[in-house]
Design goal:
By secondary structure, the chain is an alpha/beta fold. The chain has seven helices and nine strands; from the N terminus they run E-H-E-E-E-H-H-H-H-E-E-E-E-E-H-H. The strands form three sheets. It has a four-stranded antiparallel β-sheet with strand order 6-7-8-9, with no helix packed on it. Strands 1-4-5 form a three-stranded parallel β-sheet. It has a two-stranded antiparallel ribbon with strand order 2-3. Strand 7 and strand 8 form a beta hairpin. It starts with 28 loop residues before the first strand and ends with a helix. Bound molecules: zinc ion. The site of zinc ion has 4 residues, from loops.
């Protein structure tokens, strides 16, 4: 999930060593927690002057509200924008799947809507062999936010982000 930045050439949360651009055939799905560039810019890679999926066999799961965000839609109108070079490419190829609410992706792997950082922000819960892993995206940025929910990253809008994120944090 979350492909980070192209220059990093890595997946931020790695479920197995097989999920990497070096082994693209093994990745069949990845989840973008939210449409902030540092979480999805690596979904494509540039080759011969064109942008192509970094994981050509994988479907990308993005919160519908992030895709339908007016800023995203406006950016997609510009063929030179980062959104056009990334999410737009996947959308044109039918590799972008929009998620509303919660969704069971695979047995034991569930996408959970967690708006706050963005309207379409989502987290992932993985159950396996009696253990549970939560991939939180930007539901939290630092451990201190668990005890101090009103403390948030400096780019967060205190009038919109925090009031939207706190219910998602409480639900978790
Ligand atoms: Zn973010």
């Amino acid at each position: 999930m979350d492909t980070s930045l192209p220059k990093d050439n890595r997946v931020e949360v790695v479920f197995t060593q097989a999920i990497s651009p070096a082994h693209p055939c093994t990745c069949i799905a990845f989840i973008i927690t939210h449409a902030h560039f540092d979480h999805y810019s690596g979904v494509t890679t540039q080759r011969d002057g064109h942008y192509i999926p970094a994981f050509p066999n994988a479907h990308c799961f993005l919160g519908r509200a992030d895709w339908e965000n007016p800023e995203t839609q406006q950016a997609l109108q510009d063929p030179d924008s980062e959104d056009s070079h990334t999410l737009g490419v996947l959308h044109r190829l039918g590799l972008l799947e929009l998620v509303e609410g919660d969704r069971e992706l695979l047995p034991g792997v569930r996408i959970i809507a967690a708006p706050g950082e963005s309207a379409g922000h989502q987290i992932v819960r993985v159950h396996s062999e009696g253990q549970t892993l939560y991939c939180l995206g930007d539901l939290y940025h630092h451990a201190v936010e668990v005890e101090q929910p009103a403390w948030m990253a400096q780019w967060a809008n205190p009038d919109t982000t925090i009031p939207a994120a706190i219910p998602s944090q409480r639900q978790l």
